[in-house]
Amino acid sequence: MSALAPADLDALRRAAGEAAVDASAAREIDGAKLHATVTPGDADALARTVAALAERSIGCVIAGGGTRLALGNPPRDARILLSTRGLSGVLELDAEEGVARIQAGTPLATARTAVEEAGWELPFDPPGARTTLGGVLASGAVGPRHLGYGRPRDLVLGLDVVLGDGVATRCGGRVVKNVTGYDLMKLHVGACGAFGVISAAWLRLRPRPESERLFAATLPDTPDAIPRAIAAARVPTVRACVLIDARIAPAVEPRRAPALGWLLLVECAGDEAAVARDALRFASELGAEETAGGALARARALQGETFGSVGLRFRLAVLPSRLREVARELHGAGAALLVHPGSGLVHARIALDAETDGAGLDRAWLAARTAAQGGAGHVVLESAPGWAKAVRDVFGDPSDEWRLARSLKSRFDPASVLNAGRFVGGI
């Protein structure tokens, strides 16, 4: 796409504010050259900015902390980066009800501190030190504790969203009973900004547990390894349960990493007596030993790693009961696995032989698709070199739902200026 005309920049400065537009340095995302970064300072400025984009047919890529820009197909007709980092801060926090309204550009670390000071826990722990709330919601990102916390779409009570024509809308509110008619919150959470820009969210917080303890165990490469991990994940106090294969386990627990088989991390949280009871259970049944909390942080970081110009990272969502077959299929393709046995999420790393290894990409996709089908689930290519995204949709094979998504895109973003091309089917 061509560079922005002076009139385009003037229009964006009028909408967002003079200081909010930075045209001093271009950047590239998956082959799309972005000529300016626009960072509106509040929700009204965001709405005016999106309206200006729609009026002038200027496509944008939406970003918060930028930690999840690897997810999505190559942008289409994008010329600016629309940053939500200017929308930062906790707008309301009800310590009695355990709910908070937080702006989308707020770093999770900032929100977590405010929530913890009020005696609650922020129920998100995705990878990425710069992660913002809006980025987590738009991508539907989860971390190891999603087993206990729940998925992002289950934790949102209400959303403030700016649609593609610049109209500011609100769905839901501070309590569940505010939701009537179609639950549009579920549309925006996980949609990668295809239908609107999230500006703020009402969240349901969680009580802080009395006790938190992390345990590590090694499981041999036997047919019952994964079923044992699934059983561990179903223990009531377990908040996180992660199974890491031997090839990548040294990055998490160098001293406990097995030569073969799996490293199992289990985090318990709850009242002290219950956690102590389950600690004895895991020691007896799995030979688990208590370990420092840094191991879970390292597992979280490993889940979100990108692997340069020859690395692919797939995310599969399958039935836990079929994880053993899924793991066998992926291991046969040379994948290194990080598995959440309680929810059936699998993160599979596959290294290509060389840059632009098209045959290797085809083999990796075949293995991932076959494994997902065998697990009665689906697969997404979460991270890949730009050339790999240009030849195949990262969200997998076309489905009937894609036609519905295309229709929704035309309704909520008629000028197709919000993350065009990035979501399923290249919408």
Amino-to-carboxy terminus distance = 18 Å
Q: Major sheet, described briefly?
A: 8 strands, antiparallel
What kind of assembly state do the chains in view correspond to? single chain
Kindly provide the radius of gyration, computed on alpha-carbon positions and rounded to a whole number of angstroms.
22 Å
- What is the CATH domain class of the largest domain? Alpha Beta
Count of all domains: 4
* Largest sheet strand order: 17-14-16-15-19-20-18-21
Shape type: globular
Residue share in helix:
25-40%
What fraction of the residues are assigned to beta strands by DSSP?
25-35%
Number of helices: 14
Structural class: alpha+beta
Kindly describe this structure.
The chain has helices at 6-16, 43-56, 108-117, 133-139, 146-149, 152-155, 184-188, 225-233, 272-286, 294-303, 323-332, 358-374, 386-390, 400-412, and strands at residues 21-22, 27-29, 32-34, 36-38, 59-63, 78-83, 90-94, 99-103, 120-121, 156-162, 168-172, 197-204, 206-207, 211-219, 238-245, 262-270, 289-291, 311-317, 336-340, 345-351, 378-383. The protein has 4 domains: 6-86 and 412-426, 2-Layer Sandwich (Uridine Diphospho-n-acetylenolpyruvylglucosamine Reductase, domain 2), CATH 3.30.43.10; 90-207, 2-Layer Sandwich (Uridine Diphospho-n-acetylenolpyruvylglucosamine Reductase, domain 3); 211-297, Alpha-Beta Plaits; 304-395, Alpha-Beta Plaits (2-Layer Sandwich). It is globular and about 70 Å long. The chain is an alpha+beta fold. The model has no long low-confidence stretch (mean pLDDT 95). Strands 17-14-16-15-19-20-18-21 form an 8-stranded antiparallel beta sheet, sandwiched between helices. Strands 7-8-12-10-11 form a 5-stranded antiparallel beta sheet. Strands 1-4-6-5 form a 4-stranded mixed beta sheet. A hairpin with a 2-residue loop joins β2 (27-29) and β3. The protein is built from 14 helices and 21 strands. α1 runs antiparallel to α2 (43-56) and α11 (323-332) packs antiparallel against α12 (358-374).
